[in-house]
From TrEMBL:
One of its GO terms (molecular function) is metal ion binding. Interacts with the cytoplasmic NapA precursor. It comes from Vibrio brasiliensis LMG 20546. This is Ferredoxin-type protein NapF. The gene is napF. PANTHER family: ADENYLYLSULFATE REDUCTASE, BETA SUBUNIT (PTHR43687), FERREDOXIN III (PTHR43687:SF1).
Length: 160
């Protein structure tokens, strides 16, 4: 059992509660207590976005690709960490920071082109290129917009 709160006491790094672990994780269970770090979820991930994170625990890296919500990570897991597929995978949403090319008046719509749910819309403004806006109600948190962003201006994190 790894107590990340105690572990962070000796480190300058803070544990980020908004970071994405895996979809359909049961919040009622203590992930670090039950996850055996066997790596089966990473092996089964069809887009290879599940990587070893802090302490060897699996985490999602959207700079590699997107989550297709295939549920294979949950199906292969030998522990009872996951909710049924009928539940919402996570409360994660994409957020765009100030380094976005459009915010700096450079035309770029790569994130919107990749957004399957069309949650990223571009609003026309006088004297500027179209500005991206994320409709959070439509965003699935899949991360498709992250890897294609040329300035790494998009992050997906859990809404707390």
């Amino acid at each position: 059992m790894v107590d990340l709160a105690k572990r962070s006491f000796f480190s300058r790094n803070k544990i980020d509660d908004t970071s994405i672990r895996l979809p359909w994780l049961d919040k009622a269970t203590v992930f670090t207590d039950l996850c055996t770090r066997c790596g089966k979820c990473a092996e089964k991930c069809e887009t290879s976005i599940i990587v070893k994170g802090d302490g060897g625990f699996p985490t999602v890296d959207f700079s590699i690709d997107e989550c297709t919500f295939c549920y294979q990570c949950a199906e292969v897991c030998p522990e009872s960490l996951f909710l049924p597929k009928s539940e919402q995978p996570w409360n994660a949403k994409a957020l765009i920071n100030d380094s976005c090319l459009a915010f700096n008046n450079v035309e770029c719509r790569s994130c919107g082109d990749m957004c399957e749910t069309m949650a990223i819309k571009f609003k026309l403004e006088i004297g500027k290129v179209a500005q991206p806006e994320i409709e959070l109600d439509e965003c699935s948190g899949c991360g498709a917009c992250v890897a294609v962003c040329p300035t790494s201006s998009i992050n997906v994190s859990n809404l707390v």
